[in-house]
Amino acid sequence: MSDTRIFGLRFKTNEKLQPSFEEMKAFLASKKTGVRGLHGDDLKQYQALLAGLEAFKAGSPSPRLSEKMQYTVLDHSHFAKPALKLAIEQYKYHLYTLSNLDFKKPGVFIKSAEEEIARLNPRKSDEAARIERMRGMIEERKRALDGQHRLWRELTEELSNIIAYIADNLARIEDLCEKSISCLVNEQIDRKKELSLIEDIKIHFKEKLRDALHQGTISKEQLETAKEEVTDLSKRTADMLRSDVYSMTQLYEAVLAHAFKVVNDLGEMVEEIKRRKHASLEDDLALYSQVEKILIALISEYRFDVVLLEINYEMPHSQMLADKRKEIFEHLFDILPKT
Asked: Distance between CA 144 and CA 148 in Å, rounded?
């Protein structure tokens, strides 16, 4: 089975390892080992981004144009996805479980018990009974060790599956961003929307002059003023469209660059994990902990700033320009590739 949606369902998973909602909540609220802070602190910035996007999609009051562009791009690119947050939460949970595996204590006990058995005399009834008890405890520890070794294999497999899931979906985000950038570049080149908006402005002023003509004559001064206003509004509209296309392109390029870096970093770690071949628990903890840092960087070390050309509302016909701005936004979002 597969889910072609970006950050869709993750089918390749070991269900018996998955924590319940309450277990995950308790884990995220617990303190990290050896460092300050809680396990959930690493996800706070991304959680705030998801909450902001959810409020925006629910119709939060009067979002700024820069916020509208940012949230729309992050939603369309699928960078802001609850499924990504969940995958990283699960990764952190399984890594923590892996870090709590302990092969040393059972191994030390088995060695100590075997040495003690070697010193005891099985011909003596009391020592024979003790030998029997010790052998029972040794078998118990060996079964525990077998279980921990099995859990080690299962956890590293699950961690690797999560890495593959995130890397594969980030690669899909890269592809979508590249296609979106191509659409925006083509929009800049063919100028169809720009010419259409300018034509609408010309029609508006022609109709305005026609209405004035029905009420009487039109002076030469009125005609010249109308021409100047059309020229000014046409230039401001064209500048605004180019600026918005540039800003949106920059956003997609930022998402693309961020995803590209993380995919490369994850790829290098996957190769290193394969090369080490799970040589020891210490090796695996070091490698998968390094991956955790990469995943936290993915959802915390991004910069998706938006700078838009401001409309001067003190200038004439600023409302018309604002209406054209809204139309530009809707058009740009409409030409993006569908997912």
From this structure: 6
